[in-house]
């Protein structure tokens, strides 16, 4: 007789009650999880650094005054708030929602329904990577133009990298095979694109370093103005100014332009390395595109293929002249915001144009962006030329008026007149870039010159179609079609297409939608 058979019924029942199964993840009684306690080694230091200007001001200029303690109290409150946030924050994933609680003196309890979750962005900044941590942003894709985390976004800062990946898999990979077994091996991820060192040659043509130079110059000028500081007092600055004063103006401009170009190029290459190094675009077995990139700050973004509404190839003018482009996804739930949200839809960093088309073909299963486009009427050319040239002439006239009044010298309006041929060239290039096509289930539209974009949008993803026509377009017999999409930019335009062709294109893109209006026009005719 076995030991189990020797137990009496009462003893067996007691043994069964003693074995308590813990609540599982994704159930109504799911367990609560805490943020990683190693964040307590980081958060006070960060809060102290943020409060450093107030603290230094109180210590240096207080001189024993009573208000000196205000800075110390403010710093203590900031550090205490950060520590209490780490200690009191808890989260759990139930069957229907993700819950988050925090607060010691003022408690907060927020919940996001799981069926509305669109993104789980995993970001690991240097402060996180020091302890192998990450920040997981759980969002619903709303508030596209917001400036920060909205009420429908939860930020878990910080969790372990393994926990962040577990959350991403649990919340986004909801599709499982009905007949899958626990012993079946998961197929490996499919690599679609990875960064190539040779792509660094496209970095200077992104001109991203120009924004850095502008920000630095603006910051230095602001502080110098606030502190009443004159940089000319430095002997080095005086020597440089004296050198340029003794050289011809044209040579000074050439040297300054070359120096600026070299500086912008170096900063652009550095920005490219920091942002896109280790870039990998993979397709996971659950039908999800996974993008990982970053050298110092790593970012991981998942895009469910069911939410793809198309793709777009962006070609800014300098990058286009170098034969490069970048590719972005048109997907529901991905924001086009700023800061950490920017670039969430990126499928390929600046790379050869042919590689961008290959990525589109891999992601969508076809490459509608490569479809030959229908050119727009010549009347669209006249509109672009007149608008480009007229805007420069109006600027020149305004500068001439200010010069006539003595508020400005004569050279600004003369420079504006010199820009007229360039404005005409931009207008011609804008017309040259116009085009549209309807191929299969995709509406393809292209426009722009300084920042040209070719977008392929699924017709079944459009929420309607808008036919827009200004008084000038009416006189020229042109219309603009607007395709609203709950993804990407929100709407994509087919600019200045012929009225007859535009209505026919809209009717073919969404059959039957415009039939009542077209029939009414024929009846009135």
Keywords:
single chain, 525 residues, alpha+beta, seven-stranded antiparallel sheet, six-stranded antiparallel sheet, 42% helix, globular
Structural class: alpha+beta
Strand content: 15-25%
The helicity comes to 40-55%
How far apart, in Å, are the first and last alpha carbons?
99 Å
The low-confidence parts are: 10-20, 143-150, 175-184, 337-341
Give a count of the beta strands, DSSP E runs of length 2 or more. 20
**How can the largest sheet be summarized?**
7 strands, antiparallel
Coarse morphology: globular
- Helix tally? 18
Mean pLDDT score, rounded? Answer: 80
Radius of gyration: 30 Å
Strand order of the largest sheet: 7-6-5-11-10-9-8
Please give a structural write-up:
It is a single chain. The protein is of the alpha+beta class and 525 residues long. Helices cover 42% and strands 23% of the residues. It has 18 helices and 20 strands. The protein has helices at residues 3-6, 9-18, 43-50, 52-61, 68-88, 126-129, 161-172, 208-226, 235-245, 249-276, 317-321, 353-364, 378-404, 411-418, 420-433, 471-476, 499-509, 515-524; strands at residues 33-34, 90-93, 97-102, 108-113, 119-124, 133-139, 153-160, 190-194, 280-284, 288-293, 298-304, 308-316, 324-331, 346-352, 435-439, 442-447, 451-458, 466-468, 478-484, 491-498. The strands form four sheets. Strands 7-6-5-11-10-9-8 form a seven-stranded antiparallel sheet, with helices on both faces. Helix 3 (43-50) packs antiparallel against helix 5, helix 4 (52-61) packs antiparallel against helix 5 (68-88) and helix 13 (378-404) runs antiparallel to helix 15. It is globular. The N and C termini lie far apart (99 Å). Residues 10-20, 143-150, 175-184 and 337-341 have low confidence and may be disordered.
């Amino acid at each position: 007789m076995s030991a189990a058979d020797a137990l009496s019924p009462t003893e067996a029942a007691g043994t069964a009650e003693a074995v308590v199964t813990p609540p599982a993840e994704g159930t109504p009684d799911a367990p609560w999880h805490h943020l990683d306690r190693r964040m307590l080694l980081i958060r006070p230091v960060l809060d102290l650094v943020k409060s450093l200007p107030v603290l230094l001001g109180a210590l240096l200029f207080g001189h024993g005054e009573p208000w000196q303690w205000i800075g110390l109290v403010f710093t203590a409150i900031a550090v205490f708030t950060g520590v209490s946030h780490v200690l009191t924050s808890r989260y759990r994933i139930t069957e229907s929602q993700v819950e988050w609680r925090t607060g010691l003196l003022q408690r907060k309890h927020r919940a996001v329904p799981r069926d509305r979750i669109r993104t789980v962005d995993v970001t690991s900044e240097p402060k996180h990577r020091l302890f192998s941590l990450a920040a997981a942003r759980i969002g619903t894709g709303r508030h596209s133009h917001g400036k920060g985390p909205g009420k429908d976004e939860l930020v878990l800062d910080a969790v372990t990298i393994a926990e962040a990946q577990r959350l991403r898999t649990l919340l986004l990979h909801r599709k499982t095979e009905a007949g899958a077994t626990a012993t079946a091996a998961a197929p490996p991820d499919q690599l679609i694109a990875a960064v190539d060192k040779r792509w660094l040659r496209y970095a200077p043509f992104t001109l991203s370093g120009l924004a850095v130079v502008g920000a630095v110059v603006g910051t230095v000028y602001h502080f110098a103005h606030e502190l009443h500081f004159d940089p000319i007092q430095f002997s080095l600055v005086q020597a440089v100014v004296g050198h340029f004063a003794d050289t011809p103006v044209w040579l000074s401009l050439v040297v300054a332009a070359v120096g600026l170009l070299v500086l912008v190029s170096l900063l652009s290459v550095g920005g490219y390395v920091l942002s896109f190094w280790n870039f990998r675009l993979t397709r996971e077995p659950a039908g999800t595109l996974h993008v990982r990139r970053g050298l110092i700050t790593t970012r991981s973004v998942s895009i469910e293929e069911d939410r793809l509404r198309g793709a777009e190839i962006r070609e800014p003018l300098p990058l286009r002249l170098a034969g490069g482009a970048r590719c972005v996804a048109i997907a529901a739930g991905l924001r086009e915001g700023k800061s950490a949200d920017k670039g969430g839809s990126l499928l390929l960093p600046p790379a050869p144009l042919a590689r961008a088309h290959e990525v589109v073909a891999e992601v969508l299963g076809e490459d509608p962006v490569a479809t030959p486009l229908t050119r727009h009427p010549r009347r669209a050319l006249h509109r672009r030329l007149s608008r480009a040239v007229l805007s420069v002439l109006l600027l020149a006239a305004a500068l001439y008026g200010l010069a006539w009044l003595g508020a400005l010298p004569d050279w600004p309006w003369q420079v504006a007149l010199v820009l007229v041929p360039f404005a005409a060239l931009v207008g011609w290039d804008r017309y040259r870039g116009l085009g549209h096509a309807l191929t299969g289930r995709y509406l393809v539209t292209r426009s722009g010159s300084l920042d040209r974009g070719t977008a392929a949008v699924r017709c079944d993803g459009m929420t309607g179609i808008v036919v827009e026509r200004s008084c000038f377009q009416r006189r020229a017999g042109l219309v603009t079609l607007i395709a609203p999409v709950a993804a990407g930019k929100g709407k994509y335009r087919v600019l200045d297409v012929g009225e007859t062709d535009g209505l026919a294109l809209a009717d073919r893109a969404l059959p039957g939608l415009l039939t009542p209006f077209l029939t009414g026009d024929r009846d009135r005719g």
